[in-house]
Amino acid sequence: xxxxxxxxxxxxxxxxxxxxAAAFSGPNAGRLSALVWLTVAVTLITCVLYILAFLHLxxxxxxxxxxxxxxxxxxxxxxxxxTRTFSARQIRFGAWVVLxxxxxxxxxxxLA
Length: 112
Description:
The structure is a single chain. The longest helix is centred in the middle third of the chain and has 27 residues, at 29-55. The chain is elongated and about 50 Å long. It has one domain (2-111). By secondary structure, the protein is mainly alpha-helical. It contains four helices and no strands. Keywords: Membrane, Transmembrane, Transmembrane helix. The chain crosses the membrane at residues 35-57, 64-87, 93-111.
């Protein structure tokens, strides 16, 4: 399961590096759009699996909030790509939200 978090973190970093204001108007627009869709899919799968795992615990874990916020950030990215506005600011903001929340969870999980 930790592999999914590392995959989502890596994809979010790639999104942060490769998305800029002119990225969706060039020849690589289709490839970048597919990369954002892949990133959203991996993030959604990771978050849903961890949320379901947290809901089966006897008490609520604070890690549940981190994955709900990651879903929110992924929703920002999804809305930018699904509506075909391709707002670089919205995609990057969603990537930052997901990246920070998953990074906090990963660090807390490995240090505990």
